[in-house]
Automatic annotation (TrEMBL), chain A:
<dbReference type="Pfam" id="PF01193">
    <property type="entry name" value="RNA_pol_L"/>
</dbReference>
<dbReference type="GO" id="GO:0005666">
    <property type="term" value="C:RNA polymerase III complex"/>
</dbReference>
<dbReference type="GO" id="GO:0003677">
    <property type="term" value="F:DNA binding"/>
</dbReference>
<protein>
    <recommendedName>
        <fullName>DNA-directed RNA polymerases I and III subunit RPAC1</fullName>
    </recommendedName>
</protein>
<dbReference type="GO" id="GO:0003899">
    <property type="term" value="F:DNA-directed RNA polymerase activity"/>
</dbReference>
<dbReference type="GO" id="GO:0005736">
    <property type="term" value="C:RNA polymerase I complex"/>
</dbReference>
<dbReference type="InterPro" id="IPR011263">
    <property type="entry name" value="DNA-dir_RNA_pol_RpoA/D/Rpb3"/>
</dbReference>
<dbReference type="InterPro" id="IPR022842">
    <property type="entry name" value="RNAP_Rpo3/Rpb3/RPAC1"/>
</dbReference>
<dbReference type="GO" id="GO:0055029">
    <property type="term" value="C:nuclear DNA-directed RNA polymerase complex"/>
</dbReference>
TrEMBL record, chain B:
<dbReference type="InterPro" id="IPR036603">
    <property type="entry name" value="RBP11-like"/>
</dbReference>
<dbReference type="Pfam" id="PF13656">
    <property type="entry name" value="RNA_pol_L_2"/>
</dbReference>
<dbReference type="GO" id="GO:0055029">
    <property type="term" value="C:nuclear DNA-directed RNA polymerase complex"/>
</dbReference>
<protein>
    <recommendedName>
        <fullName>DNA-directed RNA polymerases I and III subunit RPAC2</fullName>
    </recommendedName>
</protein>
<comment type="similarity">
    <text>Belongs to the archaeal Rpo11/eukaryotic RPB11/RPC19 RNA polymerase subunit family.</text>
</comment>
<keyword id="KW-0539">Nucleus</keyword>
<dbReference type="InterPro" id="IPR009025">
    <property type="entry name" value="RBP11-like_dimer"/>
</dbReference>
<dbReference type="GO" id="GO:0006383">
    <property type="term" value="P:transcription by RNA polymerase III"/>
</dbReference>
<dbReference type="GO" id="GO:0005736">
    <property type="term" value="C:RNA polymerase I complex"/>
</dbReference>
């Protein structure tokens, strides 16, 4: 049996989007699905067909968009899930409050502190170990410089010089009246101990977003506390998640089956976000190839697909009867437009590589745990 | 957090240690205790239970095992949402040992990860060198 043509392979990979339905959703690249075709796992075939194309990286390296092409949804989704919930980060877990006379209650303040993303020297963060919080576990590791990062916050709100007089004159702007009335994440100070001074260097551990507002105070109010940050994973608490979001979407496809020309072309372009459809001129080839639609319209506008990745697949064009049989919408089932937005502790590209490494570790651990003599579950 | 298996009277965290630097940090016995074979297994049909795994590994492993032509059926399930357990069922043709199929599946998945890492690194370097030039 002849191997299927390239066009057939592409057609098979297309998720079809209709007015009310989606079809051809499931992967079919399995042995036994298509008569006479193998589809057996082949590393060389995978190597030749799998592609990664970087699309956009923000200057701060925290927001990354790239295309992951030629892999199955199950792999893309595994990586996305690991990014969100299994890549470890450092976050504040214990807060020891010595003084808090602000109006934010202790527990609410502690919760807010926990959510502040931290950053520090990457090698030092990698060097950090887990801290097992459960005191009941035998051989429970004590807190040390290797598993616990200490930060402190000590701030007191006061009247500015002459602030009281200004208040009497009716000034209400807190910036003019008080000092330290806003407590920001930049006010944390890193309290290194033992090897941490050398490992974390001069920058220490600090918030990756210094302008996060933690609390507001008025003169006489005082916050004094000590924070212990540990390594954790997003599965335990969202504050340990290294990403704001890690998402993917499938590349949209737009197939124009019959030429859309003239005023219709402009209307068609307006059905899509800007940049998706381009307007070209009808050429003499078009008129001879499609005389029914194009005869006598040479030089008029003709709709051409420009950049389908910008499409949101709103299906607006399918609502208009004049386009209904002229266009087919779909998505490529093996083309993932991946977007990773880091919260600041790690760069997005590091996070993606770490997620692949962790998936491999998962497989490796099961592989070595597998023996012929594995216990039968009760 | 997830359930912790007890090995030689000692509790071990299950999911957390996937985020490790080196797999040797965790004793092999921990992983051996995480894998069990459910009752009723034969050479060519068995259900395996992995403790501390979820859809992340389950679906990826199911896909790669289904790519094996010796496999008649492969499916996975999470029997209960509040138990950190994942079951995977494999049935093979021609009396092929399902242990070997599972082992091959895990190896293929690891090879796949290596290819993705390699391609990502190359794509990253290309992107950055293009950016430098422009």
């Amino acid at each position: 049996m002849p191997a299927p043509s390239e066009d057939t392979m592409i057609e098979r990979k297309k998720l079809k989007v209709g007015i009310e339905t989606v079809s051809n959703q499931q992967s079919t690249d399995f042995p036994g699905h298509w008569p006479g075709e193998s589809h057996e796992w082949d590393l060389e075939y995978f190597k030749n067909n799998m592609r990664i194309e970087f699309q956009h990286e923000h200057a701060n390296k925290l927001d990354l968009t790239f295309s992951l092409i030629g892999v199955d949804t199950s792999l893309a989704n595994a990586l996305r899930r690991i990014l969100i919930s299994e890549v470890p980060t450092l976050a504040i877990e214990d807060v020891f409050i010595y003084q808090n006379t602000s109006i934010i209650q202790d527990e609410v303040l502690a919760h807010r502190l926990g959510l502040v993303p931290l950053r520090g020297n990457h090698d030092a963060l990698r060097w950090l170990k887990w801290y097992q919080k459960d005191e009941d576990v035998p051989d429970h590791e004590p807190k040390s410089d290797e598993n616990c990062v200490r930060l402190s916050l000590n701030t007191e709100c006061r009247w500015k010089e002459g602030g009281l007089e200004k208040a009497k004159q009716g000034v209400t702007d807190p910036d003019e009246l008080y000092e330290n009335h806003n407590v920001y994440a930049r006010d944390f100070s890193f309290e290194p101990w033992e090897r941490q001074t050398e490992k974390f260097g001069d920058d220490g551990v600090r918030s990756s977003h210094p302008d996060i507002l933690v609390a507001k105070m008025r003169p006489g109010q005082h916050i004094e506390l000590l924070m212990h940050a540990y390594k954790g994973i997003g599965q335990d608490h969202a504050k340990f998640s290294p990403v704001a979001t890690a998402t993917y979407r499938l590349l949209p496809t737009i197939d124009i089956l019959k030429p859309i020309v003239g005023a219709d072309a402009k209307k068609f372009a307006r059905c899509f976000p800007k940049g998706v459809i381009r307007l070209d001129k009808v050429t003499s080839e078009d008129t001879s190839a499609h005389p029914e639609e194009c005869a006598g319209k040479e030089g008029e506008a003709k709709a051409v697909v420009d950049n389908p990745s910008l499409d949101t697949v709103s299906r607006e064009c399918l609502r208009h009867p004049e386009f209904a049989d002229k266009v087919k919408l779909g998505r490529m089932r093996d083309h993932f437009i991946f977007r990773i937005e880091s919260t600041g502790q790690w760069d997005s590209d590091e996070l993606f590589l770490e997620s692949i490494r962790l998936l491999k570790v998962k497989a490796a651990r099961i592989k070595r745990g597998l023996t012929r003599t594995n216990a039968q579950a009760q | 957090m997830s359930a912790k298996p007890i090995i030689q009277g000692q509790e071990f965290p299950v999911i957390t240690p996937t985020s490790i630097k080196d797999i040797d940090e965790i004793p092999v016995s921990v992983d051996q205790a995480r894998v069990t074979v459910l009752p009723g297994s034969t050479k060519s049909a068995a259900s395996f239970q992995f403790e501390g795994e979820d859809h992340t590994l389950g679906n990826a492993l199911r896909y790669i095992i289904m790519k094996n032509p010796d496999v008649e059926f492969c499916g996975y399930s999470i029997p209960h949402p509040s138990e950190a357990k994942m079951n995977i069922r494999i049935q093979s043709y021609d009396d092929v040992d399902v242990h070997d199929i599972l082992d091959k599946g895990l190896q293929d998945l690891m090879d796949m990860c290596d290819v993705v890492t390699e391609k990502f690194t190359i794509a990253k370097e290309e992107f950055h060198s293009n950016k430098m030039q422009s």
